[in-house]
Amino acid sequence: MPGQGRANALVVVVVVVAEILLLALFVVPTDAQSLGGYCLNDNPFSGEKDCTQFADDTPKDAASSACAVGLAMPGQSGEYSESGRCPLYSTPASFGGECSRVTEQGISVKSVLALSDGGPFGDCAGIEQVCTTFIQGEFLPSPACGGSLEDAVGGEEVGGKTESGPSSNGGSEDLPDKQRRNTIAVDVETLADGFEFTEGPVWIPATGADPSLPPSTLLFSDMRADTIFAWSDERGLETFANDSLGANGKALDGEGRLVSFRHGPRDVVRGAAMESATVLADNFQGKRLNSPNDGAVSPADGSVYFSDPIWGIFIRDPQGMELDRHSVYRISPDDGEVTEVLPNTAMPNGIAFSQDGEVLFVSDTGGLAVHPNPDLAATEPPATIKAWRLDNATGGVVDPDGPLWAIEDFSDGMCVNDRGLWTTRGGMAPPKHGPPGLVLRDPKNGEEIGYIDIEDPTNVECNAEDGKIYVTAANKVVRVTLLE
Ligand SMILES: *[C@@H]1O[C@H](CO)[C@@H](O)[C@H](O)[C@H]1NC(C)=O
Ligand SMILES: *[C@@H]1O[C@H](CO)[C@@H](O)[C@H](O)[C@H]1NC(C)=O
Question: Which InterPro entries does the UniProt record give (predicted)?
């Protein structure tokens, strides 16, 4: 998934959302209402305030209502100031920049992003990534992050200081040296470039797949463009679906049909056409899923396992969370029943199976503070990849408390082939986990057995019939040819 926010450490990430009724307010804005202002809300996990700046021409009532109904965190209502600017603007050393976006209700907002001391988001590259992948906005760097953003530190300030200039914890020159050296001989080629945020690669084989899917083709999503693309050697880049409905992860089932995990309708579906696909799951015990992110089909029995974090809700519908947890689920191939496999993971993400289907691999991007379970939120679970022995009678894990192994790493998508477990380590990974790239692990113990330098990988497909590895990586898609 995109993203991976980590609201605790950082920041001041805020996505403003207004209720539908705001649309009505938009119909009759008057000059008297045009005041801009900002919205502050508590971040109960970091103890900091998050701040969102409204555009100057935002009708006061619309801004006030947007602030009242909640910001980045579902249920956290804010305090609206009808004029002035987010206090962070006047703290040049920690003001990293703005993340600008227009909400679905048409309100222009800027999340004001703070540089924090250390941590994965302690630098400008980190907060830029938070902006582009998590908030899905446009990043405008402050002077501390090498940008201009003139009005940020000038003009009317709240609380006053206006000194500017680079800060010691900003600037890409301060980034730690990243040692990036392939340990496997490979050729890496960029197949297509210029996307906003790519995800969910799946290879459609030459034969055996649903005939309405393009053969010998990679499908992948550009999440921010809500588009599914197709890439093949023969035809190059094409559009597969103009409206992806937020399809993120994708998989093929045993009969070669496409299974998609979608943020938009918050469901798991089967079928090539996004608008008419068959819904396999959209709720658990009557409550709507959060935003299915990624999943895989069991090679043992054809059941579908998927992760259900809240990234998609953040962006689209922060008030709409119905479940009180972020879990991994299974859809039975027999009766379609949805069961909970791993209750209460912190922020589950990539899913993969061992080749015999007996072991389930789950990456949990952890630490995201924004968790309805206060125990989990308070403990700030680390980002992990874990392997779970499956009980093939029930499809559940044999021991919910005891994974076969657990490795600390910040990983998004994963897949398994003859070489092992391929995991992505994205650009937001804390430096302690190692440089971003594609990491090959031993499925038996999780140990790293190979590393390939790829910038900002999000997800990986390693079961193409050509034996090559396809990686979605931020704004591009790359193909890795193994030379050994
Ligand atoms: C996507 O939209 C374009 C422009 O309207 C259209 O030409 C194209 O056929 C559409 N592609 C698909 C796969 O629907
Ligand atoms: C579980 O799988 C193993 C290995 O494939 C098999 O030997 C065993 O009979 C299965 N058990 C059940 C209850 O299906």
Answer: 6-blade_b-propeller_TolB-like (IPR011042), SGL (IPR013658), SMP-30/CGR1_Lactonase (IPR051262)
Please check whether residues 115 and 213 belong to one and the same domain. Answer: no
Dist. CA 299 → ligand 2 center (Å): 13
The reply to whether 157 and 193 lie within a common domain is no
Same domain, 202 and 320: yes
- Amino acid making up residue 426: G
The atom number, within ligand 1, closest to the CA of 242 reads 1
Domain count, the chain: 2
pTM: 0.71
Atom 2 in ligand 1: which residue has the minimum CA distance? Answer: 242
Looking at the CA of residue 300, tell me the nearest atom of ligand 2. 5
Same domain, 84 and 159: yes
- Write out the residue range of the structural domain in which residue 393 sits: 173-482
